[in-house]
Amino acid sequence: MAGLFITLEGSDGSGKTTQIYLLEQYLTQIGYEVIVTREPGGTCISEKIRSIILDVDNREMADVTEALLYAASRAQHVEQLVKPALLSGKVVISDRFVDSSVVYQGIGRGLGIDQIEEINAYAIGKVKPDITFLMDLDPAVGIERKTNQTSLDRLEKEKLEFHYSVYEGYKKLQIRHPERIKRVDATKSKEEVHRQILGYLHILLQRGNEHEASYGDHS
Ligand code: TYD
User: Fold this and answer.
1) How is domain 4-206 classified at the architecture level of CATH?
2) Which of 67, 88, 120, 185 could cross-link 105 (Cys pair, CB 3.0–4.6 Å)?
3) Which residues sit with their C-beta closer than 6 Å to ligand 1?
4) How many helices, marked H, and strands, marked E, lie in the chain?
């Protein structure tokens, strides 16, 4: 698929929003058309699903319902926004994608990685991130940051134990997909984290250019 699909992942409060903003600015300056979006959300329908999922009053929500709602929100997001943008050659930066479901629902809720991958394969079809930046930050620090900034949503209110299993899940996922998921040290300053992200991105863009050049040679 044309275009470039970038996702950011990590524990709550790990600084994804700031990094997405810096990345958007950078890519726009060098001439890319960039769309920033988030999950759950990104489209009108997906945002409505988001508010059901994160509503602190929905304490009785079953884990499977939660997993299917994230996948439903994602299916709409992919169909209505991500896929068309990529097909028209844009860069899409998404705050979270399938990896979040794999670690929060598959590992954190204990529903199983395979089950979550399966329902999400159905939800997203062929759309896959080209690169994913994993913001590595101790979840206790992230939740503390969040608590100081805003009121916590239903997921953020989970016990610290849940957040640690999510954190460990991310590390395992990174080991499983090292070519796509790049670990970023989110304890560093925002400028330093941005530099780490650009370092990985330049390698990807360079490879893309080389691929195009060699493809051109043979055609
Ligand atoms: P997020 O929008 O990152 O929260 P905030 O903007 O408040 O930082 O994500 C909302 C919550 O949903 C977050 O705790 C992670 C969780 N989540 C899942 O459990 N599964 C998923 O598939 C996604 C996308 C998010």
Assistant:
1) 3-Layer(aba) Sandwich (3.40)
2) 67
3) 12, 38-40, 54, 70, 95-96, 100-101, 104-105, 153, 155-156
4) 9, 5
Ligand 1 atom index nearest CA of 104: 19
Complete edge-to-edge strand list for the sheet that includes strand 4-10: 34-38, 91-95, 4-10, 131-136, 181-185
Per residue in 143-187, pLDDT (tens digit) is 998 888 888 998 888 899 999 999 999 999 999 999 999 999 999
- Structure-block tokens of residue 219: 């055609």
Q: Virtual CA dihedral for 137, 143, 144, 146, nearest 10 degrees?
A: 110
Return the ligand 1 atom nearest residue 71 CA: 22
Q: Tell me the residue ranges of DSSP E strands in 65-124.
A: 91-95
pLDDT category at 118 given cuts 50, 70, 90 is: very high
Domain-wise residue ranges, the chain:
4-206
Residue-wise pLDDT for 55-65, tens only, equals: 999 999 999 99
> What is the pTM for the complete model shown?
0.94
Task: Give the separation between CA 103 and CA 117, rounded to whole angstroms.
Answer: 10
Q: How many C-beta atoms surround the C-beta of residue 157 within 10 A?
A: 13
Please list, in sequence order, all residues whose beta carbon lies within 8 angstroms of the beta carbon of residue 205, skipping any fewer than 6 positions away: none
- Alpha-carbon gap, residue 171 to 33, rounded angstroms: 31
Contact status, residue 184 vs residue 136, Cβ threshold 8 Å: yes
